[in-house]
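Lecture notes, structural biology module. Today: joint structure prediction for complexes of two components.
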Amino acid sequence: MSVIFEDKNRLVMPRCLEYLTACSLGLLRIIRKKEEVPITDVKGSNARKDWLDNPTIPTAVDLVAEALIVKDFEFREAIEAAKYILDRADSSSILIRQLANHFLEQPRPRWAEPSNILLVDVVDARRKYISRLKKSVRIHPVNPITWSDLAICYAALSQIDKARMAMNVALGLTNNNRFILRAASRCFTHMGEPDRAVAVLRRSGLCEFDPWIASADIAISEGFGLKSKCISKSKYMIDDDNLTHFARSELTSGMATLELKSGSAKRAKKLMYKALSDPTENALAQVEWLSNQINEDIPEINELGCSVPASFEAQALYLFYNKRFKESLEASKLWGTYLYLSSRPVIQSSYIAGLQMNDDTEAIRILENCTPAQKDDPVVMNNYAFSLARSGDIERAVEIIKKAKSYPLSEQQKFVITATEGLIAFRSDNIEKGRSLYSMAVKGFEKINDLRAAATATYFWAVEEKRVRAQAATLIVEEAKKRISRFNVFELEDLVKKL
Amino acid sequence: MKAAENLVGLDLDGGWHIDELVKRPKKGTGGYSSISYLASNKEGRKAFLKALDFSAALQEEDPAHRLYVLLSAYEFERNLLHQCKDKRLRRVVVPLADGTAKVPGNFGPLENVPYLIFPMATGDIRNEVARWKKFDLAWALRSLHHSAVGLQELHGIGVAHQDIKPSNVLVFPVEGSKLTDLGSASQVEKPSQSDKKFIPGDVSYATPEQWYGWSQSPDFSNRYLIDLYRLGSLIFFFFADCSATDAIQLKLSIKHGKKFTRSDFIGDLPYMQYAFGEALHDLHTLVETLAGDLTDEIVMIAQELCEPDSRRRGDSRARAAAYRQQHDVQAYISRFDRLARTAEIRMI
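The predicted structure, tokenised, for the full assembly:
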């Protein structure tokens, strides 16, 4: 079984979010502090005079709308007009009632928990959403946001061709909108086309001005060995005080990651703190990950994790590192439903459920309920096979592991799967084969210098030896204890003591 | 007392007599103040008189310049109205007479008050709708048809109205609806005060590209596209009680928060298109209860006319055809006429 803790190369990849979620999180806000706000005097307007002379629904609507357009929400007469609309307008007049209600509504505090985040974990819900989006594009086919949302939903269902087609339409309709560009680049990255993802960002010409786009370019380029062309500009951007801290947070945390990789931990640390000034949940998760890489304890992360909306990943990791596994599992589940294209949260939650909570039924439930896009990952399949084998469903576990092996695998993934095959062999009463496979996995991990993974595999091997009451069990258990202590596999420390 | 407020009882050229002051002096969007009167002639025909008041200009810091601006605006509008009259535009309100009234008393250089006399309307479409106990679909569609004809007539003489809104669509007892108030209009190759304005006309009815001061080209035809948007906005008025601009701004504000501010038009366009999509969805719901099987056609017209991206606004076939222009109104005249006839036949 693998765990996200092994993630050695976290990057600030743009989140693949639907429009409503992005709006709720405030990700589409302006990037400059001093944005030009048009000033029109409502007090001297005709709409006001009309309303005062002849208070009717149409004059009230005109005045409220004008005040809304010029953002004068405190204008007394407009407030009265809004109340007039609510008192007098027909209940069927949905738009004007909505207008009046919205005008009178108190602005929510910035970090109020957004209710629009689509925390739906059922594939069926996504299918229904696709149906709605398809209806919407039939009515208004030139709306790129709907096409983009459609592409993301198709990608979640692993309908890659349809996703690609829908995203191409979105890009055909607009090629320099931040939301579309980030969604497209993430979507293409998910579809295994990182060069296209980067090309889309660069063609927009926004990399040099927009920190959101620059951050996406750097992360994707870095993740796939491409050369980012906006690193030097980004150095200026993260120090540009005309840009909001929020807009710069992902770029700043991304630059901190680059600094750390290039060996400048001091500079990375400085940037990490800077990124925490007003972070997005993605920036917060990156800082959390970075702080663990350099063993820097940053207490603000936990506080921010509670106040930054949708910071499920940061919370899940923080709680995991602090051995609060039950809470970490809950946060991981939310993380998985929030980022339904990413397999990392599913790997994390199935690991915690299966191992820390010793609840393979829950792990199987998590793995079966995730989206096809999340399932489409050899490590997720490995975890699924692991829990199935432990639950006694060997036949299915063998089938799943066979499927996982058909993917192009990294060395580490190959040894993870070998270890799980060892487990399956043990559970099929093929003890010798099990030992041989576990031994092969442990040696493999040692060969690639992944000593934590070797310790973890030794632990699972020890569990199986103990279960079959083999004579060699004591030796393997001792070896597991030694390795877990030596390589700081903190999440197994308590479990190994019980062996 | 201003000279322009002192016209009651005066006899004017052409046999017109000023009967009554309409109390509310309204500031025109054309830049000058006008004072409204009721007038009648010897045949007993009632009319509406608009007297121009330039006295406020004298109170300003640079009265000469201000006076020049106001007079230019008035002169421009009067010339446009004369052209409309000469070309016999049927769906645009043209003056019955115009001239200068000499007001007795000590008013100095302001004793000569320019005026325009217009035929008497029963009110604008807002007043008409307010009178209805039950929504009159046929009337609304016919009014939209008349407005489209008025727009085509204006475009035909190279004039972009730029301030089409419910209060500028007047209703006449026999003739139906007509466009009025050319105070914000522009004409091809004739510079006017409106050309210099960021948003000519009412801001509540401004197009998305006007909010940003964006234009696909300096071509005059962009002004015609603004008219198309405002024509489509009348559909929103009849069925949703608000303008397309109100609906889009509302949806934007709900999604992005009250503090949403613009950055650049092309970058923000997808947000506006999404907001417009939502507004169309609501419009569809509202139209459906009133227009039944005509709903799809009506909403489709609203969608084409009010498209936030001006490059895609208007009839798609007109945009595709080499011999037609993007701002061609003819298709909408035909479609509104057909819809109105269908609704009228169903009433019989």
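Point to remember: The radius of gyration of chain B is 21 Å.
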